[in-house]
Design a protein that fits this description.
mainly alpha; two-stranded antiparallel sheet; 2 helices; about 55% helix
Length: about 110
């Protein structure tokens, strides 16, 4: 025996599936953009700091011992609440050791 299909129920399920698919299509790019934006901003901060390091060396003949010197004399912004800055000259003022800026990732409850 064949069961009779309840078209109202089938229509309801189709609408629910359609809404879920639309929600995924709309929300997935937003989630991806928000995750990448912190990394892009960190890379831009790294680029700005590297440029300030080069400018400091060109004008003064040595690299600064720490990034606070660049903040105080070259006007760069250092946001330690959002980013981790890795820069260590190890006492060598004429060799650029480079800088790395990493976004801080917070846990779900923060």
């Amino acid at each position: 025996m064949l069961k009779r299909i309840d078209w109202r129920f089938a229509g309801f399920i189709t609408i629910i599936i359609f809404v879920i698919i639309i929600a995924l299509v709309v929300l997935m790019p937003m989630i991806g953009i928000s995750d990448n934006s912190g990394e892009k901003a960190a890379k831009e901060a790294e680029r700005v700091i590297t440029k300030a390091l080069q400018q400091c060396y060109a004008l003064e003949g040595s690299y600064p011992a720490d990034l606070s010197y660049l903040r105080d004399h070259y006007g760069i912004t250092i946001n330690t609440e959002k980013y981790i800055y890795l820069y260590d000259q190890n006492g060598i003022s004429n060799i650029n050791m480079g800088v790395q800026v990493l976004p801080k990732h917070f846990g779900a409850g923060e």
